[in-house]
Design a protein that fits this description.
- By secondary structure, the chain is an all-alpha fold.
- It has a domain of 64 residues.
- It has three helices and no strands.
- The termini are far apart.
Length: 110
């Protein structure tokens, strides 16, 4: 059962990526500029309309609408890197370090 779910997940991922690619080609833009999660939401919203299409022309119209909506799911344009360099955050230890054992001079009792 897990293998079937994995195959279904990979298939749906590839379907969404293919729809993004087709929408980006139609809009003459880079497919990497389109948000995957927003495109997934558009596809989930448009699937009932595609399923209920009564003719091929109606299906083609709904598909074209879906692709136009996907092309509008643009990511914000970032042209520069962050102004601050990456830094390593050191993890503090929750427990104090062990103190070294106290040296007892010979001949004395502790």
């Amino acid at each position: 059962m897990a293998a079937k779910e994995l195959v279904l997940a990979v298939t749906s991922y590839n379907f969404i990526r293919a729809a993004i690619h087709i929408a980006a080609q139609a809009a003459q833009m880079d497919p990497r500029r389109i948000s995957f999660s927003r495109a997934q939401d558009v596809i989930n919203a448009c699937l009932p309309n595609l399923r209920s299409a009564r003719s091929q022309q109606e299906y083609d119209r709904e598909l074209a609408k879906m692709l136009r909506r996907i092309a509008q799911c643009k990511l914000p344009q970032t042209s520069h890197r962050p102004s601050y360099p990456r830094a390593v955050w050191y993890h503090t230890n929750a427990f104090p370090k062990n103190k070294p054992r106290r040296q007892v001079p010979e001949g004395t009792k502790e």
